[in-house]
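Check this.
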Amino acid sequence: MTDDNDRSSANGTIDYIAVQESPPFQRLRRSQRSFVFPLAIAFLVWYFAYVLLSSFAVDFMAQRVWGDITVGLLLGLGQFVTTFAITMGYVSYANRRLDPQSKALREELEREEAGR
């Protein structure tokens, strides 16, 4: 972390702009973004592919796979499965990688605030 003087304002409170610019916060932000952005892009591509297929490939989406189950229905249900999988993956990633970083940053700020 940086010196207390770097992160305290004139009235003795924590300067959160300085905290936001600190290396530990930047690492936390980079870690979070490195997970979120690629998955968000992948999911949006998958979602728009589904929408486009349902609009322009009606015959393909209407193909029966088993009984009344069609390709479109399976891909639509796949959207839900993907959403839950991404959510579970993010929770796992956050528990392993983000939470320890944010906890260390929070504890440092609490120590600084208690020391005033």
In short: The radius of gyration is 23 Å. The chain has a mean pLDDT of 89. The longest strand covers residues 64-66. Residues 33 and 39 are 10 Å apart (CA to CA).
